Amino acid sequence: MPVRLIATDLDGTLLDADLAVSARTRAALDAAREAGIEVVPVTARQPIGLAQIADMAGFTGWALCGNGARAYHLSTGETLFEAYLSVAAQTALAEALLEVAPGSLFVSVRRGGEDFVAQAGYADVAEFNDHKRHPSQMGEATLADVLAEPSLKLVVRHPEVDNDELVGTIRGLGLPGFEVTHSGAPFVEVLAEGVSKAWGLARLCTHRGIEPAEVLAFGDAPNDAEMLAWAGRGVAVANAAPVTMAAADEVTAANTADGVASVIEDVLARV
Fold this sequence. Notes:
Strand order of the largest sheet: 2-1-11-12-13
Strand content: 15-25%
Shape: globular
Helix content: 25-40%
CATH architecture of the largest domain: 3-Layer(aba) Sandwich
Pfam family, one: Hydrolase_3
Protein name: HAD family phosphatase
CATH topology of the largest domain: Rossmann fold
Largest sheet: 5 strands, parallel
Number of strands: 13
CATH class of the largest domain: Alpha Beta
GO cellular component, one term: cytosol
Structural class: alpha/beta
InterPro entries: HAD-like_sf (IPR036412), HAD-SF_hydro_IIB (IPR006379), HAD_sf (IPR023214)
GO molecular function, one term: phosphatase activity
């Protein structure tokens, strides 16, 4: 079945070591669009972070942010859907986690990903590239304020606990109402129950009348694994996490070697 939609992660997948789109990758994306293939960024980034890449990559159509929690159109501003983590679920998680992992810090990303409400102390351990925001602009909210409204994504971070351990600890709490994953950045991300990149991409494809078998997807991090498994053809870059490699149908070259571009070029050569 021909490819009708390309879904690609950004950091560690489409972008090179400088967080840029190489000339070869841009040419491949343009060629795909000219061939009538829809190209959709599927990222953990919020709109502020995607905006920095959209022009570079030529993205003008639908995009999925917040690990699939929000679908919106880059040109019209239309929001197709948003999925929020409830106040009850995030409050129960925070209270239980602080019992077993004191020192955990929280951020609520809300209102379509435009608002970033960080707990006091979070900015002290953050860098600009973590969220594409300068730490001086993150504020110092109380935990009660962080948890006061539903979150498109709840960021959880512990200065002394790595991502995989923190994900395991959160899952081990045995609480309902959320999903937890990470993108390789120095924090984990908690979403509404059932939400993932695969969930968001499936909803968008249903809206566009596109079958999973018509989707070519690329990724590298644990939060990409479900999307690669869902797509008709899931491709991991060579630098991908083991869980993502296992979920993929095949492996291409690393993000620093234009792995995404090489697969797209091959697809187009066979059209």
